[in-house]
Amino acid sequence: MKLIVSDSTTIITLLNIERIDILESIFEQVLIPSKVYNEVCINDITLHSSFFIQKKIKDKTLYKLLSKSLDAGESEALVLATEMELALLIDEKKGRKIAQNMGIPIMGLLGVLLLAYKKKHLTHDETIEVYHTIKEANFRVSKRLEERFFELLSEI
């Protein structure tokens, strides 16, 4: 994949564990809407400007509709993914469900780890290590999703 639109959770989680390189190994650029940029760039954190591209959304009507159910960053990310006709990197359950209902292809942080492993950017052990590190950094994963992650990891 060359381009993807992202919500803030995956970016913040990878920044917190200092592994943004995982995203950079898979994508050429990550497009983020303004509200996601603002969520990520707090406490003097700056994003590598040629990899993370800030984009403004155009469809304010769709944004207002989505923002009745989702937070501002998620709403803008869904709008941007729709406008750019790109997949969306999103982890929150409600946002994922809405994106799927809108026909937006989605991927979460665990999908990123599996893809990095599949493309040989991470070894099996590194993938497991990063998984445990993100959980220690308070990334929430349901038991069912955790089981599915390890099942898929063993099949690659």
What does this structure look like?
The chain is of the alpha/beta class and 156 residues long. The chain has a single domain (1-156), classed as Rossmann fold, CATH 3.40.50.1010. The protein is built from nine helices and five strands, in the order βααβαβααβαβααα. The chain has helices at residues 8-16, 21-26, 34-40, 60-66, 72-84, 93-101, 109-118, 124-136, 143-155, and strands at residues 3-6, 29-33, 52-55, 88-89, 106-107. A five-stranded parallel sheet has the order 3-2-1-4-5. The chain is globular. The mean pLDDT is 93.
Features:
156 residues; 9 helices; 11% strand; Rossmann fold; alpha/beta; 5-stranded parallel sheet
Strand content: 5-15%
Name the CATH class.
Alpha Beta
Helix-strand sequence: EHHEHEHHEHEHHH
DSSP helix fraction: 55-70%
Strand tally: 5
List the domain count as a whole number.
1
CATH topology: Rossmann fold
Number of helices: 9
pLDDT < 50 stretches: none
Please outline the major beta sheet. 5 strands, parallel
The main sheet orders its strands as 3-2-1-4-5
What Rg is obtained from the alpha carbons, in whole angstroms? 15 Å
Structural class: alpha/beta
Shape: globular
CATH superfamily: 5'-nuclease
User: On the 0-100 scale, what is the average pLDDT?
Assistant: 93
CATH architectural group: 3-Layer(aba) Sandwich
- Distance from first to last alpha carbon: 18 Å
